[in-house]
Amino acid sequence: MASHGIEIRGLYKIFGPNGKAHVEAVKAGISKTELNERHGHVLGLKDINIAMPGGCITVVMGLSGSGKSTLIRHINRLIEPTVGEVIYDGRDICRMSQSDLREFRRHKTAMVFQKFALLPHRTVMENTVYGLDIQGVPRSESRKKGQRWIERVGLSGFENHYPNQLSGGMQQRVGLARALTNDADILLMDEAYSALDPLIRVDMQTVLLDLQAELKKTVVFITHDLDEALRLGDKIAILRDGEVIQQGSGQEIVLRPADPYIASFVKEVNRGRVIQVQTVMTPAAGIAGTFALPSGTTLETAAKQMTAAGVSVAQVLDGDGKPIGQIDLTSLISAMVTPVGHEDTAQIAAE
Amino acid sequence: MATCSILPDILCSFPAVSDSYIRLARKTIDDGFRAQVRSHAHLIDAVVQPLQAFLNFLEKLFVNSPWIVVLAVMLAIVYLASRSKAITLGTAFGMVLIGVVGLWEDTMVTLAIVTVATLIAIIIGMPIGILMARSDRVQAAINPVLDVMQTLPSFVYLIPVVVIFGIGKVPGLIAVVIYAVPPMIRLTNLGIRLVDRDVLEAADAFGSSPGQKLWNVQMPLALPTIMAGINQTIMMSLAMVVVASMVGVGGLGKNTLQAINNQFFTFGFLNGFALVAIAIIFDRASQAFGKRLQKHTEVVHG
């Protein structure tokens, strides 16, 4: 199944009895506080344009109140947009009829929730096949599929437990199994891991990355945690006060924060895990090193491999195995601990 | 009074409408009401007949079956519902005591009418409760009606019931249902409205139709509250059975009424205690059943 991308174009959401009437004012630049105080409407989202590539994990990051949960709910239209388009596979979700929308939700999307939102009166198995129940798939068939995903998320043996009997981490595994059993192209994860403790969160991130490597779904992941965003996101969009203030790859955001707000976030990030070798290498291809690293290797991995091999200089190879530059340990380590300057970031722009 | 002497008359004694007006209004409304009833007699009959048949059938079944069969069936139902030996034994003890003091037959009559009244209250109350939960407007329209039903003294609404349906078992049954249905409606509505919004959102996100949402999510999760409503409905119909004996319902209620009229102290209390025994049996069994349906809430992850 080839995954389709999702494209959000010119999306506005203004909460209140007559949101449409205030779109023009918002477009003209009225502020969030002014809209609230003078007109009693709350600006939820302002001019959102994001292309979410198919088969990739797009992370929408922002602090609470930034509109990220509102945004993800527009993709399956749990919230009606004020104006704008959400295009999937050539169709505008915002214009679908109620029955089309229901079919779209049943077959194309699955969602994982921050508070798990499992059905407390159903067992793990019954929760897992919930989406298939709704589609009208007979239990004999759905149980087989459910069983597969229950095993895949590591819950074998718990099929007949009730959600109440499980820990938070296990409950969210049920949430994930429920979403995956739906076999939908789009996977919406609304702060899916925010309620979990840090170790389990990392564990669940690994589960998601492993699954994604195999399934290649179009994942939209909402989080307030930049580390999580950088670990999971092929693409990251940062939201503040209902506006996208920067979008790009994790590396781009860490190296070139669009404003002081993002810069203050990025300061605390473990750069070694985000920045890749080709970004800090010397692009001279002349010197032939004995030790080679593929482009796309993170600095941390590179440092580990180079010290293990006992070399201080390594060659960087591109996708076809051709050398494109070299990197030495000193520059590698200095890039890990200090913000990279403009001359380095210029290379990314050239890429 | 002293203050009255300094006030004008109109402020002192309330200026009521002349008696003749009230008399006229009363006569018009009463006559109109009776005429309406008379002209719709066939319609009223159509309502009464099936209820009468059902009630008679159940009453005969309860009264004519050998007491040992009735008791065995009752104990089986109580045990299956509650899965509790204590409640089953208590039921046996209570029912035997009722039989020993010679109230078995009257108790069966009362049991029959309470059973029918509860069933009707559930059949009427649950859909209305669901409708109320779905629409704020329906809720706003029905709530005041329920308020009136619950605060209007039960003797007062016996009057229109008697005018429309006459004296007898079915009018009594209808009065009991009117009295007992509000908690069923209110608690169904409340139960559905209290269902966690997050879970409902999940149901929506997976593409549930409104019907699927109702039966897969809302009703199961509202069940504890709905069970509390059924419990209340049973309790209220047991209470109302005594009052309804004034319009011709038999059983323990009629005995109580006789005891009041004749100052039969002991007889009255025996009947009262028999009602209490049935109430406790119904209450414990239905609560235990409701709890058993919620077994998923009991085992909590430590």
Automatic annotation (TrEMBL), chain A:
Residue ranges of every copy of the ABC transporter domain listed in the record: 30-266
Its membrane topology: Peripheral membrane protein
Gene Ontology biological-process annotations: amino acid transport; glycine betaine transport; response to osmotic stress
Domain CBS, residue spans: 281-345
Annotated EC: 7.6.2.9
Catalytic activity: a quaternary ammonium(out) + ATP + H2O = a quaternary ammonium(in) + ADP + phosphate + H(+)
Entry's transmembrane regions: none
Taxonomic superkingdom: Bacteria
Annotated keywords: Amino-acid transport, ATP-binding, CBS domain, Cell inner membrane, Cell membrane, Membrane, Nucleotide-binding, Transport
Gene Ontology CC terms, in alphabetical order: plasma membrane
Xref: Pfam families: ABC_tran (PF00005), CBS (PF00571)
GO molecular function annotation: ABC-type quaternary ammonium compound transporting activity; ATP binding; ATP hydrolysis activity
Subcellular location: Cell inner membrane
InterPro entries noted in UniProt: AAA+_ATPase, ABC_osmolyte_uptake_ATP-bind, ABC_transporter-like_ATP-bd, ABC_transporter-like_CS, CBS_dom, CBS_dom_sf, Gly-betaine_transp_ATP-bd, P-loop_NTPase
SUPFAM superfamilies per record: CBS-domain pair, P-loop containing nucleoside triphosphate hydrolases
UniProt subunit comment: The complex is probably composed of two ATP-binding proteins (TmoW), two transmembrane proteins (TmoV) and a solute-binding protein (TmoX). The complex is probably composed of two ATP-binding proteins, two transmembrane proteins and a solute-binding protein.
PANTHER family: GLYCINE BETAINE/PROLINE BETAINE TRANSPORT SYSTEM ATP-BINDING PROTEIN PROV, GLYCINE BETAINE_PROLINE BETAINE TRANSPORT SYSTEM ATP-BINDING PROTEIN PROV
Family the UniProt entry places it in: Belongs to the ABC transporter superfamily.
Name by which UniProt lists this protein: Quaternary amine transport ATP-binding protein
Lineage of producing organism: Bacteria, Pseudomonadati, Pseudomonadota, Alphaproteobacteria, Hyphomicrobiales
UniProtKB/TrEMBL annotation, chain B:
Transmembrane segments: 61-80, 86-104, 111-135, 155-181, 233-252, 264-282
This protein's record includes keyword Transmembrane: yes
Recorded topology in the membrane: Multi-pass membrane protein
Protein location: Cell membrane
Record-linked InterPro entries: MetI-like, MetI-like_sf
Molecular function in Gene Ontology: amine transmembrane transporter activity; carnitine transmembrane transporter activity
Principal location listed in the UniProt entry: membrane
Gene Ontology annotations for the cellular component aspect, listed alphabetically: ATP-binding cassette (ABC) transporter complex
Keywords carried by this UniProt record: Cell membrane, Membrane, Transmembrane, Transmembrane helix, Transport
Domain ABC transmembrane type-1: 107-286
Family assignment from sequence similarity: Belongs to the binding-protein-dependent transport system permease family.
Protein name (record): Proline/glycine betaine ABC transporter permease
Native source organism of the sequence: Rhizobium straminoryzae
